[in-house]
Specification:
The chain is an alpha/beta fold. 43% of the residues lie in helices and 18% in strands. β6, α9 and β7 form a beta-alpha-beta unit. The longest helix has 19 residues. One of its GO terms (molecular function) is cyclopropane-fatty-acyl-phospholipid synthase activity.
Length: 404
């Protein structure tokens, strides 16, 4: 049959390029090993001939879709599955054209952005509780020494941010994309700030408000279900953690201009967000970005750090501190992936199997991408442009002295 010859040629081509710890098992009992391994790390089972189209063009989008939609079954540890999937793509596809780091832009408006946020974050609070830290911080942790557990590293991340922007008692703080409220709660409790946190996720809004009430901080922390384009007033400090990925490349100057308009004249802001390492703002290679857009973050767009700095200045902001936390996010996503695996039976009680498979691939795949410099994570501290240089700290010592 035609497909048999085509499959055999493809297997031989991959074998010629690399010996992979992979076994392919077909519905008719045929087996193909891609390397000389007595027990391969990963086994892919194909229940029907129609699924072979996903394998013969094994982009990360095709492989991910086949797994998520149940077209194939995969056996093995998730980190090894991700590594083998990437190796299949790299040894089959050309790293150019549609499988290169293409740049796509989307039209953003309040309705579409709210819909995308709800898709990702309103899965289930119980779902996220099972694999996040105890404070439910869904962004890159900060491993000061590298050996911290996730709970400790996430608190250190929040303190690292609030120390960098020099939060003082009595100051007003706006957190754009506040999640389940961990940062504003910490800012009020430890740093004495008066906080407003906004989110478009109804699930996050409800739980964050409940947490504020339980902490007895309703007089110092306000949680709003609100779009960043609708905020008014002025704030001494502004944080945006893991949110600007939803803004859109074309909207970044407007977004940063909006932050500027909300800052007091001597205010300080921080943007903590994921960036692409492609200088043309391209997505993860081999169709990784296509998978994420379809299944994980609809209409998400990642800028290169160069574009972040440029559009901040276009928005009237001066950048005075930049820190790369790529290594920290690789570790964070790896821990999340391990937590999801360890509690898989409990997780499956909160979401259907399709959603579980999406997040299983996404978390482990993200760790892989951060580890290999496909994507990165930057904290950028800024203020209104044109301010006197004399008001800036002379060094970064204040950040680390406060942590001692």
């Amino acid at each position: 049959m035609f497909w048999e010859k085509k499959l055999e040629n493809w297997v031989n081509e991959v074998r010629h390029r690399a010996a992979l710890p992979l076994r392919l098992e077909l519905w008719n009992g045929q087996k193909f090993d891609f390397g000389s391994y007595a027990t391969p790390d990963v086994t892919v089972r194909v229940p029907h001939a129609s699924a072979l189209t996903y394998l013969l063009t094994p982009s990360l989008a095709n492989l991910g879709e086949a797994y998520v939609e149940g077209k194939i079954e995969v056996e093995g540890k998730i980190r090894e599955i991700i590594a083998v999937g990437n190796a299949l793509a790299a040894n089959t596809l050309k790293a150019d054209g549609k499988f290169s780091r293409i740049t796509r832009t989307f039209r953003h408006n309040k309705e579409k952005d709210a819909e995308a946020i709800r898709y990702h974050y309103d899965v289930s609070n119980d779902f996220y509780k099972l694999w996040l830290d105890q404070n439910m911080v869904y962004s890159c942790a900060y491993f000061e020494n590298g050996d911290e557990d996730l709970d400790t590293a996430q608190l250190k991340k929040i303190d690292h941010i609030l120390t960098k922007i020099q939060v003082q008692p009595g100051q007003t703080l706006l957190d754009i994309g506040c999640g389940w409220g961990a940062l504003v709660l910490r800012a009020a409790q430890k740093f004495g700030a008066k906080c407003v946190g906004i989110t478009l996720s109804e699930n996050q809004y409800a739980l964050a408000k409940e947490r504020v009430k339980q902490a007895g901080l309703e007089d110092r922390v306000e949680i709003r279900l609100q779009d960043y384009r609708d905020i008014t007033g002025s704030f001494d400090r502004i944080t945006s953690v893991g949110m600007f990925e939803h803004v859109g490349l074309n909207n970044l100057p407007m977004y940063f201009s909006r932050i500027r308009s909300l800052l007091t004249d001597d205010g300080i802001a921080m943007n903590h967000g994921i960036t692409t390492t492609d200088i043309d703002n391209g997505e993860s290679p081999y169709g990784g970005g296509e998978f994420i857009d379809k299944y994980v973050f609809p209409h998400g767009e990642l800028p290169h750090i160069g574009m972040v700095l440029k559009t901040m200045q276009e928005g009237g902001l001066e950048v005075f501190d930049v820190e790369n936390l790529r290594r920290h996010y690789a570790k964070t996503c790896g821990i999340w992936a391990d937590n999801l695996e360890a509690r898989a039976d409990e997780v499956r009680k909160t979401v259907d199997d399709r959603r579980f498979r999406i997040w299983r691939v996404y978390l482990a795949g993200s760790s892989y991408g951060f580890e290999r410099d496909w994507v990165s994570l930057y904290q950028v501290v800024c203020r209104k442009a044109g301010r006197s240089a004399s008001t800036l700290p002379w060094s970064r010592d204040y950040i680390y002295q406060a942590a001692q």
